[in-house]
Amino acid sequence: MKTGLLGGSFNPAHGGHRRITLFAMEALGLDEAWWLVSPGNPLKPRKGMAPLAARLRSAHDQARRAPIRPTAIEAQIGTRYTVDTLKALKRRYPMRQFVWLMGADNLSQFHRWRDWRGVARTMPIAVIARPGYDDDAMASPAMAWLRRYRVPAASFKTRGRWSAPALVLLRFDPDPRSATAIRRADPDWASRSSGQPVRDAVTHRLIQTSEGT
Ligand SMILES: Nc1ncnc2c1ncn2[C@@H]1O[C@H](COP(=O)(O)OP(=O)(O)OP(=O)(O)O)[C@@H](O)[C@H]1O
Ligand SMILES: O=C(O)c1ccc[n+]([C@@H]2O[C@H](COP(=O)([O-])O)[C@@H](O)[C@H]2O)c1
């Protein structure tokens, strides 16, 4: 199973997340994508961050009828830094091939992440162009190191077994949507988010069994 991992605050999830995920799945030939709804981005302030349950619920709303599984795996396994999460997922799902997905805004900050080279050595990375961030991303300190590992999307898609580091740059019709704009227009979105707790499909299976696929 080729699986894309999109980590994020999802504060809240929006149509841009869904659209870039579906585009990336098509471009990279992925079977499914998991959205890792973060317990708290280590570089973002806690202030203004809606509860995890509300953010996860918004992710379920946006992922409807798509091969996208919103999860709270990091809260479940107790990781917060991406390098720890990705290593844990590779251990738990040894037969899966994972690729880390992120927008260009995150590439421009990537050198500030804990052991970012370790992230890149754990699995391939695909970066999705984002309006307003692409120039900074291309000029970023992480890109200076990562660019030697660049692989065209078309050849990545046809590779049987992936290796890392590998960097794929994806450029689609750019999507200007952002959670910041949504919060600005609707600061109380989370307080109206209610209902049954969502079932976290991947976490559920992770607790039940060791998947082995
Ligand atoms: N419109 C978009 N185009 C490309 N990538 C995006 C887009 N929106 C979100 N992403 C990417 O999706 C992941 C999760 O994003 P996140 O949940 O932080 O949403 P956001 O819209 O960037 O939020 P905020 O505005 O609060 O920073 C990140 O890797 C981010 O770069
Ligand atoms: O590991 C780190 O040091 C690190 C620093 C900043 C962000 N991240 C991860 O990057 C992903 C995107 O975060 P965000 O808030 O931009 O949606 C999310 O999975 C975060 O946990 C990870």
UniProtKB/TrEMBL annotation:
Identification of the protein by name: Probable nicotinate-nucleotide adenylyltransferase
Class in the EC hierarchy, top level: transferase
Cytidyltransferase-like domain sequence ranges: 5-184
Keyword Zinc: no
Family indicated by similarity: Belongs to the NadD family.
Keywords for this protein: ATP-binding, NAD, Nucleotide-binding, Nucleotidyltransferase, Pyridine nucleotide biosynthesis, Transferase
HAMAP family cross-referenced by the UniProt entry: NaMN_adenylyltr (MF_00244)
Pfam families referenced in this protein's UniProt entry, alphabetically: CTP_transf_like
